[in-house]
Amino acid sequence: MKAIYPGSFDPIHEGHLNIIKKATNIFDEVIIVITKNINKTAKKSLEERQKNVENMIKDLKNIEVMVNADMLTIDFANKVNAKFIIRGLRGDEDFKNEIKMYDANKYLDQSIETIYLISDEEKRQISSSSLNEINSYKLK
User: Of residues 40, 45, 129, 136, which has the active-site annotation?
Assistant: First the structure.
């Protein structure tokens, strides 16, 4: 079974890595998909984010890292023949947003299922957005 784990990963953090490790215990192949999020202003280029992710996962097996700059996630899943999309949840706010995304993806393709994983408590406290804010102040 093949799954994709899409995200902006700007930056990748321990919560993401925790989800990736859990996914590799479930799926034969996991493709981490670095995506362009039109609702966010990226701090790093897609290529920089890809390198960062590759460095974080270099010791893990059955993982590939790809970039998706211009496709809907559901179309990318079809392109790589993945029947599952992995998404991580941290709390209520994530859940509300994920329901909307789930409904949109099901509207586009009934055959692809979304699997939700929750990172361990000590790994999910800080989001990529918060890390970016912290880093912006540290660089001053």
Answer: 40
Local structure of 4: helix, strand or coil: strand
Which residue type sits at 129? S
- What's the half-sphere exposure (Cβ side, CA atoms, 13 Å) at 6? 22
pLDDT of res. 92: 79
Of 106, 124, 139, 136, which Cα lies nearest the Cα of 14? 124
- Residue of 21, 43, 51, 90 marked catalytic: 90
Q: What confidence score (pLDDT) does residue 72 get?
A: 96
Decide: 23 and 117 in contact? Cβ < 8 Å: yes
Name the domain count of the chain: 1
Query: Which residue of the set 13, 16, 22, 87 is catalytic?
Result: 16
Tell me which residue range forms the domain holding 70: 2-138
Q: Which has the closest alpha carbon to 30: 55, 56, 66?
A: 66
Below-50 pLDDT ranges, the chain: none
Active site residue 90: yes
Could you tell me the CATH number of the domain that includes residue 51? 3.40.50.620
